[in-house]
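Q: Got a minute? One more chain.
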Amino acid sequence: MAMEDEDNNTAVVATNTQPGIKKGGDVGDDGACIDRQPDTVVHQAGLNQTAGRGSRSGPGAHAATGIRVLKRNMKRNGSRGCVTRKTRFGSRERDWLKGDTQRGCVCLYGGTVDPQLPASGPQASSTPQTDLQLVLCSTSTTVEELCAQRDGQGLYVQLHGDLVRRLDPSERPLQMLYDYLAAMGYTEPIRVQQEAANSDLSCLIRFYSERPVNADQQERTLLKGVFSVRKGKTQLHKWAERQVILCGTCLIVASVKDSLTGKMHILPLVGGKVEEVKRRQHCLMFSSAGSQAQTYFVNFDTLADYQRWHRQASKVVSQTVSLVDLSCYSLEAVPEYLFYSQDVTHLNLRHNFMSLQGPGGLLNLPRFSQLKSLNLSHNRLGVFPECMCEILTLTELNLSCNNLHTVPVQIGNLQSLQTLFLDGNHLSSLPEELGGLSQLNSLGLSFNNFSHIPAVLERLSAVDKLAMAGNRVESLELCTLARMSHLKNIDLRLNGLHWLKSVSLEAVSQVTQLDLRDNYLDSLDLSSVCNLETLHCQRNQLGTLTLSGFTLRMLHASSNRLTTVNIYPVPNQLTHMDLSQNLLEYLPDWVCDCRKIEMLDVTHNLLSELPSRLLNSLSLRKLLAGNNRLQRVSDLLDHIPLEALDLQHNKLAELPESLFYKALNLKYLNVSANALESIPPSSPSEESLSTLQELYLTGNNLNENCGALLVGHQNLRVLHIAYNQLLSFPASKLSKLELLEELNLSGNKLKTIPSTVSSCKRLHTLIAHSNHITVFPEILNLPEIKLVDLSCNELTEIQLPDSLPATLQELDLTGNSSLMLEHKTLNLFSHITTLKLDQKSTTTAGDSQSASPPWNHGYSEMSGQRNKLCVSVLAVDRFGDGVEACYGIFDGDRNEEVPRLLQCTMGDVLCEELQHSSIDNVYMCNTFLTSHRKLGMAGQKLGASALLCYIHHEPSDPGGYFSLTVANVGTCQAVLCRDGRPIPLSKVYSLESCTEEMERVKLSKAIITEDNKVSGVTCCSRLLGCSYLSPWVLPKPWVHTKPLCSQDEFLILGNRALFERVSYQEAVCTVQAVRNPRAAAKKLCSLAQSYGCKDNIEAAVISLHIAEDSCTCEPPVSTTEPRGPPPAPVPVTVTPGPSDPATLSSSSGIVSEFNSETSASEVGSEAGSTASDEHPSSVPASRPERRCSLHPATTLCGIMVPGSVGAGTHPGLFQRQPSCATFSSNHSDNGLDSDDEAPLEGVISNGSKLEVEVDIHCCAFQLRSGAPESPKELDLEKRGSDYPNGKMRRQNSVVVSATNGCLLAVCGREIADLKKSPSTCSLFGKKLSNGSVVAPEDSHNLIEVALEAPKKKSGYFTAPAQQDPEDQLIVPPSLEQEVREQLRGQSLLVSAPPLPSIPPSLKDPVWDHPHPPAFASNLVPGPGPAPILQQEVYDTAL
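A: Always. Here it is, folded:
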C-alpha cells in the first residue's frame, strides 16, 4: 500500500510549448522557449501506462522546443547511489530525443537528502526519497536559463559522489554531460544521448537543483544552537539562554540571546579541556588552557546534541597546534564565525571551490593575524590569488593543481615564506621577485610546462632540491646545475630528456642525488658529478653509463640497454645496485672490488657466469641473478654473509657442494627452472647449522633422493619442489621438517604423501595437484591447515577423522575421476568455505560429444600470501545464439568487490550490446563503458583491470571461420598460441609500459608519484571503476580482433602477477606440455608462485579445436541485421511458495544456495528479456536452417531453448531471463532464522551436505525435455506429484556446468562478509527473517543481483545437495503412462530438438578434456490447473 500511495501522489509535470510562441517567457539565443509560467498538464503517475509517460496534445506537441521539466517517481535500489525509474522512460521523452542529437535530458536531484551518505543496516531502504526532476533541454541551454524557468537559485554538479560545485550561470549542463561521456570513450552521438538519459549515470555525474545537505560536513565545520549556559565554576553565576557556536578552534558564546547584537565571548579550546558534568544531564564543561583559564558550562537539550558537541570539541582540545581542517567540503567560503578564531595558525582548505568574493572568501583570509600555513591546493582557482601575498606571516603556501598560468610579482612580499608548492599547474616561467625570498627552502614545480630550469633559482640559495618532474625539459647542460651551487637533490624524471651533457670540464660538486627516470636518454656521462651518491635512471634507452665512484652509494639503472657500466674509481661506498633487465653479458671487474655492496640485482640479462670473487664477497647479502644464462656457480671458499640467493631460470645442472654449510646465513634460495638433478647437502656432517627458511626447487629434474638432503634444513618454512621427477617422498625425512608451513609437491609422479606429514604441525598449505595420488593424506588433523589442493590426481576414497580443523578454508578435489564420497564425508566438509568436487556426468558419450563446442577451458586462481582473493574469472563456453564463447579475467589489485561485480554482469552487458551493434570496436567499447557505469558506488573509489575475449563468427560471414575479439583495460593480458608461437592480443595500460598513456596523463596534470602511480593510487591509466581519478584514469578499452585458424592451439589469459613472472614463450611451452586445460592453468599459477610471486594469481587456458572446414550451415535466408531485437519471454515459470521464496536468475548467472528439501513450489524462475524496453508483438516464423555442429539450435543464453521456432520466438536471437533474483541462505521448515545455529544450511534429512565446484562463470546450460530417458527421471517426476501438497524432496538437484562438468560451492554465510564491506554494505536489499536477501521491487539492475550473490572466496559458490542413493522411489508401471501423458501435455510449452553430433574433425587427440554433459529437466505437475515446469538446471554463470 505504501508503494501505491507513493505512485498516486507523484505527478508528471510537462510543459506544452510551441515554436515561436511565448507564454510569459523569453526566447533564448538558441530559439528555445523558456517558460516562466508554463501551462502544465498534471497526470497521476502509476495509474496507467499513459499517465505514467505523460500525455501530449495539440498539433505542435511533437515539434516543441525549449526546456521541459518532468517530475519522476524514483525508487531507490539497493545500491543507494543509483536510482531506477519506477515509471518507464515515456514517449514524450523519446520524441524529444529523436528530434536532434543535440537534445537530451538532465536529471536534477533535490538537496534535502544527501543520497551519497552511507547507509547501515536494513533501515537504509526507509530513508526519504530524493526529489528528482527530468529536464528536457539542449546542449546550448545554460544554467541561467534553467534556473529562470524553475525559479531556482542555481545548479550544482557532483562528480563520482565526491565534491559538489556550483555551476556558473553561463555553463551548459547537457553539454557538460555529453563532454563527460565523450571523455569516457563514447563516440556515437546517439549513444551519448541515450547514456545521458540513464539515471544510473548519477553515480558518475549528478546535477542538483540546490546544494545537498551533508550533516557530517555541517558538524565538522560549524555547530551552533541556543542552550543554557553558565560562566565560571562558582555558583554565583546563573544559567541563561545564550547562542553557543563551536567553529574552528574556539567556543563562541553570545552575551545576549540574539547573537547578532552584543559582544561575543571567545574561549580558545586548543590545549584546553572538555569534560562531562555528571550531576547534570547532557551537560559539558569547556575550559581554555593557561593560567588565566576560563570555563563555560553548556547544558544541551538532547542526547544527540550532547554527543555531537562532545565529539567535535574533543578533537579540538586534543590538538597541539591551532589547526583548522576544512578540506574536501565543497566550500565556496569559510564560515564567517571562523574569523573569531584568531589563534589559527594552520588552515587546510584543500579540495574545495573557494571564491575570492564574499564574507568568507579568499579576500578576507588576511584577517587571520597569526596564520602560518595555508593549503589551497585543488581549488580550481585559475589565477594566483594576489590577496595571499598580503598574509605576511605565511611560512608555507600550497597552491598545487589550480590551473595557474602565472605567478604575480607580489609574491616577493612574503619574506617569511619557507615552503611554496606550485605543482600540477601550467606555469612556464617565474617572476624575478621570487628570488628575493631569502628564507624559501622548498619549491615544488613538478608537472608544469617549464622547458628549462628557471634562472631565478640561482638566487634562491636556501633551496636545496629541484623538484621539476613532469615538465618539458628536453635537454640539460650540467654547467647550468653548476651555477646553482645550493642544489643537492635534482628530480627531472618524466621530462622527455633526450640528452644531458657536460660541455665544459667544470665539476658539478654539489649534486648528491639525481633522478632521471622515464626519459629518452641513450647515453649518460656523469663523471663530472663527483659527489653523486644516488642515481635513478630506470626506463631510459641507455646503452652506456659512466659515473664517478668517489661517493656513490646507490645505483638504479634497470630497464635499459646497457652492455657495460663504467665507474671510476671503484665505488667503495656502493651498497645497492640494480642492473636488471639490461643486455649485460658479463659483470665489470669493479663490481667484485666493492667492499660494501649488500644488494646486487642483475636479473634478466645475458650473463653466462658469476665471478667467484663476487660470490665470496664478505659484504654481499642479497644476490638476484635469475633469468640469465648461467651454467655453473663457482665453489664457495669461505663463510659468507649471503642471506638471499635467486638463480632461477638459468641452465644450472648442479649447485656448489659447500653452498649450505658455507652460507650459514642463507634464508632464501630460489633455483627453480634449471636442470638440477640433485641438491647439495646441508652439512658435511650429521649436525646441521642451516638457517634456510624458503627453498624453491620447482621445474628441475630432481628425484626422490633429494628428500634425504632436505632433512638438515630444520628451519624450513616454505618448500616448493613442484614439477620434478619425484616418485615418492621419504616418510622419515618429512617428519623432520616440523616447522614447515607451506609445501608444494605438484606436477610430480607421487602416488602417496607420507603419513608423517602429520608431524608438520605448522603446515597451513599443501598443494599436490597433478600427481598420481590415490590415498588422501593425513593432513586433516593438523591444527593450522588452511588450504589443501589435491586436484588432478587419482583419489578413490577419503578417510577422515571424527572432526575437521576449523581453520580449513579451501579443499580442491577436482580432476579425481574415481573419487566416491560418502554422505558422512560430505557432512564433515559442510563447514569448509570452498570445496571443489567433480560432478559425475550422467549423459552418454554421444550426448556429451554432441554438446561439445570446438573449445573448452580451465582456470586457476591462487591468493598467494594475501588474505583475500581479489581476482575473478568469467568463462562461458556456450554464449549467446549459436556457437560462441566469452571469457574474461578481472584483477582488483587490493579490492575484491569490483572483480566480482564485473564477473557477474559483464557477460550480460556484452549480450545486450551485441543486440545494438555488430562492429567489434563499438560493442566491446560500449560493453566496458556500460560495465563501468553499472559498478555504481562501488566503482567510485575502487577499480579493476579487466580483459574480455569473445569468440564468434563474423556477422558478414556467419558460416565462415571464427574470429577472436579481445578488449582490455589495465594489466590483464591475453596470448594466443599459433603454431607454437605466442601472439600477444592485448595492450598493457600501465604508465611504465605505455608511453602515449603517460603523455596523456601528464597533459591532464595528474600528479605521478615516484613509483609511477597516478596520485599514488594505481599504475594503470585505464581501469573499470576508480572513477574519482577521471579524467586521468579512463574505462575505454583497447579492442583487437584476430581471425582464428586451424593452427591456433589455445588461448592464455592472465593477470599482471602471472605475466610478470612467466614470459609469453614459457607460458606457451608450459601449456603445450600439459594435456588438460585445467591442469595447465594450475601449472601456470604454481610456476608463478615458485618464481617468487606473492600476490593473487589467475590464469585461464582455452583449448581451441578449430578445424580447416568446421562449418556446414546453409547460408541464412535473410541477410538483414544479424542481431535482431530480443524475442518475447519464454513461459518457463515455477510458482514460488509463500514462506521460503527462492528465485533463480539465469541472466547474471549467480548461484544460489538451496536446501535439498526445497520443494518444487518453493523455487521460482522467471524467463524474459531485458535487453530492450520494447519487444515486437509478433515475429514471423522463418524457414528452419540446416545446422552444423558449430551452429546448433537456438539457445537461451547457452541454455537450449525448446520450441524456439514456435510463436513469439525467433531462431538465432539471444534470450535471457530478468536480472532480478532472491537468494536464500536457509530454507528450513522449522521457522528458524538464518542466524540460528541449527539446522545447518543446506543439510538434507540424512545429515549430508554437498559443496561442490561449479564452473560459475558460464550461462551454458542445456535443457532437455520430453519423455524421460531413464527410470530415475520417471521416479523423480512421479514423486513430485505424489509428495504432499505437490512438493518434491529435491535431493537430486544438481548444478552442472556445460563447460567442464564441475560443481562448486561456498557456504552461504559468506554473504555477510560482503555486506560488511564499506563499499558494498549499502548495496543490498532488505533482509527477511529467514535470512533471504530480497531484490528491490521493480529493479532489474544487474549490479543489484551481482551484489546480492553469496560472496566468493577462491572462486567458488554453493550448489545444492546430492541425492541420497537410499531415498529413491520407483514409479509403478500403472502410473508410468499417466506420467508420460502429463509430460507430453507440456511438450508444447517446452520442447528440445535433438542435438547434432560433433564431426570427427573437431576431435583433438592432444587435449584430454572432459566433454560437457547435456542435462535433463524435471517436469513436475503443479497443484493448480496450469501445468508448471520444474526447472532442474541452476544458472551459475558468474
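A: Residues 897-916 form the longest helix (20 residues).
Q: Perfect, thanks.
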